[in-house]
Amino acid sequence: MDRKIEKKKGIRPKHVIYTVTGIAVVALLVYLIKTAGTSTFRADKEKITISAVEAGSFKDYISIIGTVAPMTTIYLDVEEGGKVTEKVIEEGELVKKGDVIIRMVNNDLNLQILNTESQLAYQSNELRNTLIGMEQQKISNKQQLLNIDYELIRLKRNYEQNKELFDKGFISKENYLISKDNFELAQRDRELRYERMVQDSIFRENQKAQMNNSLRNMQQNLAMVRQRLEDLNVKAPADGQLGTLDIEIGQSISRGQRIGQLQIMDKFKVVAQVDEHYIDRVRRDLTATFERQDKQFDIDVMKVYPEVRDGRFQVDLQFTNEIPDNLRTGQTYHIRLELGQPVEAVLLPRGGFFQSTGGQWVFVLDENGKSATKRNIRIGRQNPLYYEVLEGLAPGEKVITSSYEMFGTNERIEMR
After folding, report:
1. Between the N and C ends of the chain, which has fewer C-beta atoms within 10 Å?
2. Confidence band (pLDDT; 50, 70, 90) for 244?
3. pLDDT digits (tens, 9 = 90+) for 33-42
4. What is the pTM of this model?
5. pLDDT in tens, 67-80
């Protein structure tokens, strides 16, 4: 007798196969849809750097290299030109104020001194002769005045006698008037002669003053020429260390030419070059630090130079407290220059990707870490360790931070 066979209920193996196959097809379709039109680069994971995005305190500072330099540098410009005959002091040697650094000669200057001395001798002799003549004239005038006074006394006496005789009727009126006229004429003559003597005396004094002034000018001129001769010996204007000295024996140096510099060693500063990217943020009084022999030293910005050369500008920094022992010109230090106060921010470690993207986009890893896709971001400030992320990334995400040069224009990276 035939028996009816009932169909078994439940999941059979072939059903599992169908389900898994369907899921795989759907996943493949989703993947193909997502990656359609997206170029992909397959990279060796061991050859790239992956960094995690963090939330933390962003310290706004930059690292720069500073060089120790003297606070004061005196440039050596020659006061008088000449030919170098001797280098007394070499570069790097310590000098005292007044020490001769180089010696020069100038034959034209020597000839000028001889001519000036000759003119001075002639002028001095002329002045001496003039003074002698003036004294002789002065004595002569006094003698003439003495004679006039004697004659005036005689004529006055004669006039007074004749007046008395005329009043008594012993002489004629004519004789009386003649004696009177002679006396009055002698008086007026004496007044005129005295006035002329006064004028002559004033003229002689003025002439004497002019000649003395001329003589003093010539003496001053001679002193100046001799000083120019002395200036052929270039001397140290202060105590310090001779820096550069750009001269050679036998070289002709022009007046005013710069031949070197003198470094004053009592105070020091630190000179640093800063990338022009920070020119709007670096200002006076910003603080900085550096370490030497495990000890930290404080400095601050004292001067910012506005000129940009080769993409960098110069700043001078001064010590605010303690100065390192045995500080020497030319020593270099890695300086941490603070640009602002720390703030809480999203941080992305620095890396070579920035040179390729300018910080406008990065490759962000997916959750499984097997691929990375291009994403636009916005970066704010930066320090030697981190970039400040303003938009596009969240803490915990992972980013490829090594160089993107080998990725070309691909927008997706597959890890292998």
Report:
1. N
2. confident
3. 455 456 889 9
4. 0.56
5. 999 999 999 999 99
> With pLDDT > 70 as the criterion, what percentage of the chain qualifies?
91
- Token digits for 252? 């002709």
Q: In angstroms, rounded to a whole number, what is the distance separating the alpha carbons of residues 120 and 112? A: 12
Q: Residues near 33 by Cβ (< 8 Å), separated by ≥ 6?
A: none
pLDDT band at 18 (very low <50, low <70, confident <90, very high): low
User: What DSSP state is assigned to residue 78?
Assistant: -
pLDDT score recorded for residue 22: 63
Order of strands, sheet of 378-382, starting from the edge strand that comes earlier in the sequence: 54-58, 343-349, 386-391, 378-382
Identify any residues that bridge with 290 across adjacent strands, giving them in sequence order. Answer: 297
Q: Is residue 220's pLDDT more than 90?
A: no
* Burial per residue of 342-351, b for 16 or more beta-carbon CB atoms within 10 angstroms, e otherwise: eeebbbbeeb
The three-state secondary structure class of 186 is: helix
| CB-side neighbour CA atoms (13 Å) of 66 | 29
Structure token pair of residue 134: 């003036």
| Pairing, β 100-105 against β 82-87 | antiparallel
CA distances from 231 to 35, 100, 114, 234, 235 (A): 84, 10, 17, 6, 8
Contact (Cβ atoms closer than 8 angstroms) between residue 71 and residue 269: yes
pLDDT of res. 23: 67
Determine the average pLDDT of the residues in 314-329: 91
Question: Hey, is 79 helix, strand or coil?
Answer: coil
User: Does residue 28 register a pLDDT over 90?
Assistant: no
How far apart (Å, rounded) are the C-alpha atoms in residues 236 and 76?
8
Residues 211-247 as b/e (b if ≥16 CB within 10 A, e otherwise) read: beeeeeebeeebeebeebbebbebbbeeebbbbebeb
Contact by Cβ (8 Å): 323, 372: no
Q: How far is the first Cα of the chain from the last one, in angstroms, to the nearest whole number?
A: 66
- Edge-first strand order for the sheet with 50-52 is 40-43, 412-415, 371-376, 361-365, 398-400, 50-52
Tell me, what amino acid is at 92?
A: G
